[in-house]
């Protein structure tokens, strides 16, 4: 059994209004030093060991991310 984490983020060239809103709010709560904020999505999947990396790639690019405007990366962790 494994836990798979898929992190999905807007591509660097895509405007991120939610990240910009958080960045502006930091000033209102007197937090300095944060130069940029990007907001993304995190998916956690519990999968059998038989699920291949190729299948996980297909899941991420067809169901979890809009690959036109988002990048993703997959991390597989063993569950103890």
Automatic annotation (TrEMBL):
Keywords: ATP-binding, Cytoplasm, Ligase, Nucleotide-binding, Purine biosynthesis. The keyword Membrane does not apply. Its EC number is 6.3.5.3. It catalyses: N(2)-formyl-N(1)-(5-phospho-beta-D-ribosyl)glycinamide + L-glutamine + ATP + H2O = 2-formamido-N(1)-(5-O-phospho-beta-D-ribosyl)acetamidine + L-glutamate + ADP + phosphate + H(+). GO terms for biological process: 'de novo' IMP biosynthetic process. GO terms for molecular function: ATP binding; phosphoribosylformylglycinamidine synthase activity. Gene3D superfamilies: Phosphoribosylformylglycinamidine synthase subunit PurS. It holds the Pfam family PurS. Transmembrane segments: none annotated. Pathway: Purine metabolism; IMP biosynthesis via de novo pathway; 5-amino-1-(5-phospho-D-ribosyl)imidazole from N(2)-formyl-N(1)-(5-phospho-D-ribosyl)glycinamide: step 1/2. InterPro entries: PurS (IPR003850), PurS-like_sf (IPR036604). It is found in: Cytoplasm. GO terms for cellular component: cytoplasm. The keyword Nucleotide-binding applies. HAMAP family: PurS. Belongs to the PurS family. Part of the phosphoribosylformylglycinamidine synthase complex involved in the purines biosynthetic pathway. Catalyzes the ATP-dependent conversion of formylglycinamide ribonucleotide (FGAR) and glutamine to yield formylglycinamidine ribonucleotide (FGAM) and glutamate. The FGAM synthase complex is composed of three subunits. PurQ produces an ammonia molecule by converting glutamine to glutamate. PurL transfers the ammonia molecule to FGAR to form FGAM in an ATP-dependent manner. Part of the FGAM synthase complex composed of 1 PurL, 1 PurQ and 2 PurS subunits. This is Phosphoribosylformylglycinamidine synthase subunit PurS. It comes from Corynebacterium genitalium ATCC 33030.
């Amino acid at each position: 059994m494994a836990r798979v984490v898929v992190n999905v983020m807007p591509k660097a060239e895509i405007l991120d209004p939610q990240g910009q809103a958080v960045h502006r709010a930091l000033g209102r709560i007197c937090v300095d030093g944060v130069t940029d904020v990007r907001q993304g999505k995190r998916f956690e999947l519990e999968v059998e060991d038989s699920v291949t990396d190729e299948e996980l790639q297909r899941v991420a690019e067809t169901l979890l991310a809009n690959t036109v405007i988002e990048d993703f990366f997959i991390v597989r962790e063993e569950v103890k």
